[in-house]
Amino acid sequence: MVGIVSYGGYIPRYRLSRMTVVQNMAWYFPVIMAVAGGEKAVANWDEDAVSMAVAAAYDCMEGRDRKTLNGIYLASTTLPFADRLNAGIVAAALNVPENGATNADFSACMKSGTTASLAALDAVASGRVTSILVAAADQRRTKMATMLEMFYGDGAAALLFGNKDVIAEFKGSYSVNCDFVDHYRGSGKDFDYSWEERWTRDLGYGKIIPEAIAGFLKKTGMKIEDFSKVIYPCYFGGTHKDIGKKIGVDGAKLQNNLHNNCGDTGAAHPLVMMAAALEDAKPGDKILLASFGQGCDVLAFEVTDKIKNLKPRKGVKGSLAHRAEFNNYQKFSKFRDLIKADLGIRGEASSNTSLTVLWRKRKFILGLVGGKCTKCGTPQIPVLPVCVNPKCHSVKTFEDYEFADKEAKVLMFTSDLLSASVDPPAVYGMVAFDGGGRTLLDFTDCEASGVKVGMKVKMSFRKRYTDGTRGFTGYFWKAVPQMEGGAA
Amino acid sequence: MATGIKDKVAILGMGCSKFGERWDAGPDDLMVEAFEECLTDAGIERNQIQAAWMASCFDEVNVGKSALPASMALRLPNCAVTRVENFCASGTEAFRGAVYAVAAGACDIALAIGVEKLKDIGYGGLPEFGSAMGPLNMLWMANMTAPGGFAMLATGYAAKYGLDINEVKRAMAHISVKSHANGALNPKAHLRKPVTEEQVLNAPQIAYPLGLFDCCGVSDGSACAIVTTPEIAKSLGKKDLVSVKALQLSLSNGEEFAYDWDGAHFITTTKASTAAYKEAGIKNPREEISMMEVHDCFSITELVTMEDLHISERGKAPRDIMDGFYDKTGKVPCQIDGGLKCFGHPIGASGLRMIYEMYLQFHGRAGDRQLKDPKFGLTHNLGGFPIMNVCSIGIVGKYAGK
Q1: pLDDT of chain A along its 488 residues, tens only?
Q2: 3-class SS at B10?
Q3: Do B10-119+220-235 and B142-208+240-398 have matching folds?
Q4: Selecting from 2.40.37.10, 3.40.47.10, 3.40.50.150, 3.90.245.10, what CATH number does the domain B142-208+240-398 have?
Q5: Which of A7, A353, B20, B387 could crosslink B190 through cysteines, CB 3.0-4.6 Å?
Q6: Of these residues, B295, B310, B345, B380, which one is catalytic?
Q7: Whether A17 contacts A36, CB under 8 Å
Q8: What backbone torsions phi and psi does residue B175 show, to the nearest 5 degrees?
Q9: Is A415 in contact with B207 (Cβ distance < 8 A)?
């Protein structure tokens, strides 16, 4: 049996109410008032498609052996590198073996998430491999006061495909490919360029998705009534419903497009919606998943008994529940680099990345891998050649020890207004890991006033710096204080 | 068996520039200002200097690499000059180099000079560490600033002793008020206005829980010393010699950072002070130390240091501070010259500036700040960050030999 073995989701903590955008920008383009309801998920300034994909991938792989993965496919249209395997960064962050794996980026299309899933299913079905992790994420910048600013949100999801302990068996697929360009982002351009909405609704979503699903049903002989959940992205609420009518699915079976909760997460959205559907699925449920972008992929799954054995995870639902209101439109604009604010001379320090150092230390930097001394058992990070335990001091006696999945507690911290930061004050501190080990980390996704000594923190893979001069994005791990609520 | 440095080296002369925002002066001007005073005080010619140590920390934005800036600015006689850098302990390191050279018999007269020109970078605070931290640390180390790095210590200290952070802040405020009162009496200090506890507590925050007045100033400055053997000093007609009693250094080895530490004290200072007291023959520092110049880069540093120097008991520094124990009129006056708080912290110069104040006090030349009959003076520097640091301690006093 081939299919989905596990799933994970990640929606950033900050939520921007669309009314906040309207209050700030409707003077410029009043039409945005038409979609003023709900809120969209907004990635923190130190998040991007890669970091969110890592978060979803960890959620998906919680409690599983990442060493057995045969490959990681990353789907996104907002990858930080045009030439450097972005899936390779995700793989390093997951600390999966470098040898024997096949990692790949799937990009340049809103349906790249489902296409990557099909490729993973094909690979597993071929018998060549046993498990492929597909992660999809997008963090699209939009111009101020546009409909796209209202519709787009940030998020990620991950699906683990394999042939053992399948929770949703793959039942077939059908794809339509056509060069329908409702919007595009030219190479080197920052923003999407989109054509008239009415055309996109009527001849795009409203025609291509129903035709693809009809093609699927014809090919497989399945009936639309067989499905308990039908998933397709479409941020136009009316059109989303109309497609259901066209294909003969009543509203209750349509998977929520999450417009009100996080917005459309681009290439990730079909997988985000799929993960959300799996969170509520019961054995025997049949799920139809379709995407949209220069055509449409349609995939069918049937949920198995194994879903009952799946451990609880944060998922999409948990991520959505973990929210902090982002009420500051100027701050959002700065996070997306839409406005110029001065970091000061202190912020000008050169940040050329030594690629030789990054290569030598890739496990530490990207994987937060430290060492556990095989002589005295002391976990430590970063690892220096001599064991830090004063009663041991053995030389090079370490085995790899992963800190990324360990919880820690705050030992001491500060919120620093002098440090150059996109989101001052910079909060950082020493944390002590459960099970041993301690280090200094930047904190993120927290309000300084809520941080306390002794507070629990979890690790999160984040952008550490962006070297605009050379186009390099540097990543490291940060501590996320586990606080409820909050607002920025 | 090593016998230590006690009474083997005497200070022949010292000099100290005016500290402050010296828009008028470059590092060469600052060095010459301190050196001219020092040379006059020592009563020798520059050509009698046989070896020199120069301290500067942020060489990238200051004097540049090598010891040539000192050799050229001071027109030294083509003698050995070595540049040393060890964060905030740099000035004391230069002094240690010169003192050890004399004690070793490698030369008769040696110079130690420290200088830092911080106000040529175009922004407040210390220069950004980012570009100077090396290519590995750049990839992961938090963008820690000096105030942020030390501010963490206040949260660690409050947690360790179960104190409300505001209690700690009140003791920290008293520290700053006391130093400003002392600095107001010092014509060479940068900041010379007394402040009130209310002002300190209501100042804008820099890095939680440190406010503006919990942070020392940022200044340009230079200080220097000429050292020799007590015998040579006497032969040059010097009386009431001030001699070196102890010089100790202790550096973190990463245990605080990666193994075990309460976040409420300095391992290094605790060790270096114990070694220094032993070297100087001091049994009970709380009773025997007459005055101190400690590294009050931030008020919390001074607070914690009082315990690491074994003068206040663990957890009791706030009480001693509030009792006025370290005030000018207290049992062990601390920062009698105004400290880093009022002098600012031109890094390479600070250690030598501290020794300069001790030297003035022993010679009865401290003006309005003069203490009565001091016996031992202790200086202390703490470079880096609480989580990994360099500590230097010096003890000077009246020469005990004949």
Answers
A1: 999 999 999 999 999 999 999 999 999 999 999 999 999 999 999 999 999 999 999 999 999 999 999 999 999 999 999 999 999 999 999 999 999 999 999 999 999 999 999 999 999 999 999 999 999 999 999 999 999 999 999 999 999 999 999 999 999 999 999 999 999 999 999 999 999 999 999 999 999 999 999 999 999 999 999 999 999 999 999 999 999 999 999 889 999 999 999 999 999 999 999 999 999 999 999 999 999 999 999 999 999 999 999 999 999 999 999 999 999 999 999 999 999 998 888 888 777 899 999 999 999 999 999 999 999 999 999 999 999 999 999 999 999 999 999 999 999 999 999 998 999 999 999 999 999 999 999 999 999 999 999 999 999 999 999 999 999 999 999 999 998 766 66
A2: strand
A3: yes
A4: 3.40.47.10
A5: B20
A6: B345
A7: no
A8: -60, -50
A9: yes
- Nearest-CA distance B383 → chain A (Å): 18
For residue A433, the distance in angstroms to the closest alpha carbon of chain B comes to 10
**Alpha carbon distance B223, B354 (integer Å):** 9
B142 part of contact set with chain A, CB < 8 Å: yes
Looking up tokens 């014809």 gives A218
CATH architecture, range A357-366+405-482: Beta Barrel (2.40)
CA distance A384 to B388: 14
Task: Tell me the residue type at B390.
Answer: V
A381 φ, ψ to 5°?
-155, 135
Q: Report angle CA B345, B347, B352 to the nearest 5 degrees.
A: 90
Distance of CA B60 to the CA centre of its chain: 21
Which residues of B are less than 8 Å from A358 in CB distance?
Answer: 139
DSSP per-residue string spanning A329-392: HHHHHHHTT-S-----GGGG------HHHHHHTHHHHHH-EEEEETTT--EESSPPSB-S-TTT
List chain B domain ranges.
10-119+220-235, 142-208+240-398
Burial of A86 (0-12, 13-18, 19+ CB in 10 A): buried
Here the tokens at position A191 are 């923003």
In the numeric block, the tokens 């799929």 are attached to: A274
CA distance linking residue A46 with residue A478, whole number of Å: 10
Interstrand relation of A456-467 and B376-385 (parallel, antiparallel or unpaired): unpaired
Provide the terminal-to-terminal Cα distance of chain A, rounded to the nearest Å: 47
Half-sphere exposure of B33 (CA within 13 A, CB side): 20
Q: Angle A214-A215-A216 (CA atoms, 0-180°, nearest 5)?
A: 90
How many of the other CB atoms lie within 10 Å of CB of B139? 23
CATH number for the segment(s) B10-119+220-235: 3.40.47.10
The H or E element that residue B131 is part of is: none
| Distance (Å, whole) CA B339 – CA B334 | 8
- Does A429 contact B257 at a Cβ distance shorter than 8 Å? no
Q: Are the C-beta atoms of residues A407 and A386 closer than 8 Å to each other?
A: no
